[in-house]
Write a structure and sequence with these properties.
This protein has five helices and 19 strands. The protein has 333 residues and is an alpha+beta fold. Among the domains are: 78 residues, conserved putative lor/sdh protein from methanococcus maripaludis s2 fold (Beta Barrel); 63 residues, RNA polymerase II/Efflux pump adaptor protein, barrel-sandwich hybrid domain (OB fold (Dihydrolipoamide Acetyltransferase, E2P), Beta Barrel); 88 residues. The strands form four sheets. Strands 2, 3, 7, 9, 10, 11, 12, 13, 17 and 18 form a ten-stranded antiparallel beta sheet that branches. The chain has a four-stranded antiparallel beta sheet with strand order 6-5-4-8, with no helix packed on it. A hairpin with a 2-residue loop joins strand 17 and strand 18. The protein is elongated, with a radius of gyration of 43 Å. The two termini are 30 Å apart.
């Protein structure tokens, strides 16, 4: 009787794998990795000069945020002279135009008067034709003057636009990362004067394998990453489809949703779980006797020898075997 009670107690303490666990399935082996990188600005561009001349003023230095004022101001003395000269020419043309309009009006009246006399046989046809020709020639001169006026107006617009380009602007709220000119220097056309970067948005460029990219694409649209020890949100910005045959990787860019320190070189990390070679089988299904591990397929009762490569939690990592398939249900040991 004592032996029967002890046996019953042992039965109650033993875990029932079938009742406490779900199906014991063969799964794809996985490995945990961490992608690391460093932040940089979302966009960077060069600030260049479209005109030549002497730099009068530089309003920003390296590390400063660009505001409303122009970055560089170029001496506009010579362009101002051209603008003033063109304006004077326009005034002169305007005065001449008024004189010609008055003359055309007079010659028109004169032609009308002589034409009436000619119709009454009191003026010769020669005199009438001369009056008409003089009136038409004056009208041609007026038309030519109007054309010259339009050309001068276009020239003035061009000069004003060129003067506007003597004030060289950079995008507002961007950060100056390099400056190549100082006040007093004489610069030439298309000279690269500075570089500015948009640190309002930080990105992280990475080179990843196909498996790593697939793992990232399985994440939510916005996923957690670590930036200098702080957990923030990030998203996949773009994937370059071109494959690098040397590194056997793809280039991608992650966009960080970050409101803290905005600069390059912040350390970034992203833990991922990617697929690996081999299978994972539950430890509860592996029978290991005499260093000969094996599993039993539940549906057929077939026993399959396995090669254990490692372990992870409640699973053994095994080499792939032709007798086992993904999602094969195994019998508890």
């Amino acid at each position: 009787m004592r032996s029967i009670v002890l046996f019953a107690g042992l039965m109650l303490l033993s875990p029932c794998v079938c009742a406490e666990q779900g199906p014991l399935l063969v799964q794809k082996a996985k490995k945990e990795i961490t992608l690391t990188g460093y932040t940089r600005s979302n966009t960077m561009l060069s600030v260049s000069s479209e005109v030549s001349g002497k730099v009068l003023r530089v309003n920003y230095d390296v590390g400063q945020i660009v505001g409303e004022a122009p970055f560089f101001e170029i001496d506009p003395t010579f362009i101002d002279f051209q603008i003033r000269s063109t304006r004077q020419s326009l005034k002169r043309v305007g005065v001449t135009q008024k004189k010609l309009e008055s003359r055309v009006a007079y010659l028109n009246r004169e032609f009308v008067r002589i034409d009436k006399l000619h119709k009454g046989d009191r003026a010769t046809e020669v005199k009438r034709d001369a009056a008409e020709d003089e009136w038409k020639q004056a009208q041609f001169e007026l038309d030519a003057l109007a054309l010259e006026q339009n050309i001068l107006k276009t020239t003035l617009k061009e000069l004003r636009e060129r003067k506007h380009r003597h004030s060289i602007f950079a995008p507002k709220d961007w950060t100056v990362v390099a400056k190549n000119a100082e006040a007093g220097e004489v610069i030439g056309l298309n000279t690269r004067l500075a570089r500015v970067a948009d640190y309002r948005t930080l990105i992280v460029p990475l080179s990843v394998s196909g498996e790593e990219l697939a793992a990232i694409q399985k994440l939510p649209r916005d996923f957690d990453v670590t930036l200098e020890g702080e957990t923030i949100q990030a998203s996949l910005n773009w994937v370059n489809p071109e494959f690098n045959e040397k590194t056997r990787k793809l280039s991608i860019e992650l966009l960080l949703h970050h409101t803290g320190t905005a600069r390059g070189g912040l350390r970034f990390s992203l833990p991922l779980e990617t697929e690996a070679e081999g299978f994972l089988v539950p430890k509860a299904a592996v029978i290991s006797r005499y260093d000969n591990p094996r599993v039993t397929i539940k549906s057929t009762g077939e026993s399959v020898n396995v090669t254990v490569l490692g372990e992870s939690g409640e699973y053994f990592a095994i080499a792939e075997d032709g007798q086992l398939r993904l999602r094969t249900e195994l019998k508890p040991k």
